[in-house]
Design goal:
This protein is α/β, with parallel strands linked by helices and 295 residues long. The chain is built from ten helices and seven strands. The structure holds nicotinamide-adenine-dinucleotide (NAD). The site of nicotinamide-adenine-dinucleotide (NAD) has 32 residues, from helix 1.
Length: 295
Amino acid sequence: MKDLKGKTAVVTGAASGMGLSFARRFARAGMNVVLSDIEGPALDIAVEDVKASLAERGSDPVELMAAVTDVASADEVEALATSSIERFGSVAVLCNNAGVGGGSLTASPGGVHLEDWKWVMDVNFWGVVHGHASFLPHMLENGEGHIVNTASMAGHFPGHSAYSASKWAVVGISEGLFDQMTREDLGVGVSCLCPGWVNTKIAESARNRPEWAAPSALNEPSPEQEARVEFIRDQLQSGLDPDAVGDLVHDAIIDDQFWIFTDMTMVAALETRFKNVLACANPAMDLGAALSQTN
Ligand SMILES: NC(=O)c1ccc[n+]([C@@H]2O[C@H](COP(=O)([O-])OP(=O)(O)OC[C@H]3O[C@@H](n4cnc5c(N)ncnc54)[C@H](O)[C@@H]3O)[C@@H](O)[C@H]2O)c1
């Protein structure tokens, strides 16, 4: 999609981190933006943030709309589509970006906390499916649109966790959707964002954990697991500025580019995995260890 000005973007998980950076970037490109998130108060602050960032740069104001939405709910995502289309006439860009880190960071090796899996899959996987279900028919009818799904480098490397599973699923369905849209020339572009470490609040995802998914006492982290969480927090803090990802996403939509990577060193590490697969070799343990630290 070459010209974004005057069109409308819907971003889920827009109250923080990368989603907020997409909203800022789209607004700067002259798009109307629907900022959607499960956190109402943070969403109001995010809308003010986008307005301020436009004013700071001397950019023209755009129309902004805040919509509190839990992407785990098909009904709420459908309501998001309906209210966005009612307000702006059409939606050209959808970023299925809302996501949670879950408790996989602290799960004991081999430990499976079913509520954790359900919560993480509900948000990270079903949230994307709900986005496709509610916005794709509209885009297909218009013969124009672009969907950006936020996966992760964790969606390329093995990991026995709900987070990895959800992100592998997002990578797979995004590639499948791209194939469908392109082969049949349906006018809808698809991108799959696979970030490495980015400096956001993802390590504080528990702030949005529903009560039914609360970790049990059995999941109390060991000192080793706590050290790992610390490691991850450090990696995130020294990670990429989310605004750099906003630029990449904007450019990928313009260029109709499928893969959006933020860390090519991590991408290069995929070679070992593919070599092993092609050779029918068992997964390399050192690779597994490296991968358990990807995000
Ligand atoms: N930060 C990283 O290093 C990194 C790396 C790879 C992938 N990601 C992915 O990037 C995406 C954005 O996360 P972020 O890093 O900006 O973290 P973040 O926590 O700063 O932002 C995530 C946003 O999603 C919202 N959210 C959580 N549950 C929701 C729900 N059920 N419905 C709607 N909104 C919900 C949160 O309120 C928050 O505003 C996620 O999908 C995450 O998995 C992050």
